[in-house]
Amino acid sequence: MVRIQKAGRLYQLSFMPSFFPVNCYIVEEETSLTLVDAALPYSVKAIMNMVRQLDKPIEHIVLTHAHEDHIGAVDALKQFLPDVPVYLSARDTRLLEGDLSIDADEPQKPIKGGVPKRMKTRPDVLLKEGDRVGSLEAVFTPGHTPGSMSFFDAQNGSLIAGDAFQTKGGVAVSGTVKPLFPFPALATWDKQSAIESAKRIQSLQPRLLVVGHGNMIREPESLILQAIGEAERKINKKQ
User: Fold this and answer.
1) Inter-residue contact 193 to 187 (CB < 8 Å)
2) What is the pTM of this model?
3) Alpha carbon separation from 158 to 26, 73, 205 (Å, rounded)
4) What residues does each domain of the chain span?
5) DSSP E strands, the chain
6) pLDDT tens by residue, 171-224
7) CA angle, 121 as apex, 126 and 168 as ends, to 5°?
8) CA 166 to CA 212: how far, in whole Å?
9) Which residues are CB-neighbours of 6 under 8 A, at least 6 positions away?
10) Among positive and negative, which fits the CA dihedral 238, 145, 24, 157?
11) Under DSSP, is residue 78 helix (H, G, I), strand (E, B) or coil?
12) Beta bridge partners of 140
């Protein structure tokens, strides 16, 4: 089952929306489309159906991070779209190569979550902070994984956060366990980095926050600040 919701020129495709929502996004540009994340392997049909409805070509496939529930349909999509470039941070591209090592200047925590082992596609473009992909600007937001990226559209204030936040089970910074939907927290690499990234997102003052798991949030500032406060209280309690 897929549920499609629209906010301006952003389309959210949500798979299993009630039970275990896994989201990907299509950004409609003037003459083309940008796909952000690729959900699950079977999601390819719904994604391509949406592309046909919009009647514009996909120009970019952009990945927030290298977990299986965000890159699942990439290999299948590339069979339909062999010439469309795939974008992922250089840091998370290492995960696709099976390299789970931690750099000396990074928090010395193990990488968690479902890192794909059988994905054939490799990124064509290694993203870094400030890169532009269509109307989107790449924002380095590590924490859930070491190379997680978010994407900000300054034209309309929308921010695609991947798993830097969740909204299913309650709005939360990555790493903060929400009992009704604990899974993103359990797959988070470093909670302190996630909090710093959440503050970076808050500083951009997004007018629309969209995430990998859960509903879109309009005018999210107060909920973002509450989530950051909760994350900081929980991490300080354990220190």
Assistant:
1) no
2) 0.97
3) 12, 24, 9
4) 2-238
5) 2-7, 10-15, 22-28, 33-36, 58-62, 86-89, 125-127, 132-133, 136-140, 149-153, 158-160, 165-166, 172-173, 208-210, 217-218
6) 999 999 999 999 999 999 999 999 999 999 999 999 999 999 999 999 999 999
7) 80
8) 7
9) 12
10) positive
11) helix
12) 149
Q: Name the residue among 21, 23, 60, 76 with its Cα closest to residue 210.
A: 23
The string of pLDDT tens digits covering residues 86-97 is 999 999 999 999
β-bridge pairing 86-89 and 136-140: unpaired
Fold of 2-238: Metallo-beta-lactamase; Chain A (3.60.15)
- Long-range pairs, 23-28, Cβ under 8 A, ≥24: 23/210, 23/211, 23/212, 23/213, 23/214, 24/70, 24/73, 25/160, 25/210, 26/50, 26/51, 26/54, 27/134, 27/135, 27/136, 27/153, 28/54, 28/56
Helices (H), the chain: 44-54, 68-71, 74-80, 90-96, 183-186, 191-203, 221-238
Per the model's pLDDT, the better-predicted residue between 224 and 1 turns out to be 224
Q: 179 - beta bridge partners?
A: none
* Distance, CA of 144 to CA of 162 (rounded, Å): 9
CA–CA separation, 54 vs 233, rounded Å? 44
Instruction: Look up residue 165 and give its two tokens.
Output: 């936040």
With tokens 């070509």, the residue in question is: 57
